[in-house]
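Task card 7
Instruction: Convert sequence to structure tokens.
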Amino acid sequence: MRRAAFLVLALLLAGCGDGGRVRETASTPAEPGEDTYRRFCGSCHGSGAAGAPRLGDAQAWAPRVAQGLETLVDRTETGVRPGMPARGLCRQCDRAELRAAVRYMVERSGGFPEAGSTAAVGTPEDVPGG
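Output:
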């Protein structure tokens, strides 16, 4: 009897799970960079800790955006004194993942100016440590 119950339980449990497939849920990031932001960037860029520009604060992001995406990614890789460590503590992130996270934050914080735009976005000299 005990053996039969164990066998039934094992068969029932074998049907659980999804075979390792990723399931789309409400908590699954919908956009590139969102997961990296949530896991590594959000603790500082969500609160403004250590002088980090907050997600959604276009004014704080403007002088950084003026530097261009690749410069922002370069600075993310090397860190920004005094508060941001190299790679924002995402040591395993490659450059593409860092770029996606930076783009995710910038796009939610006023975005990059359109090519040829004369919109005032600040200057690189306005950035602390820059």
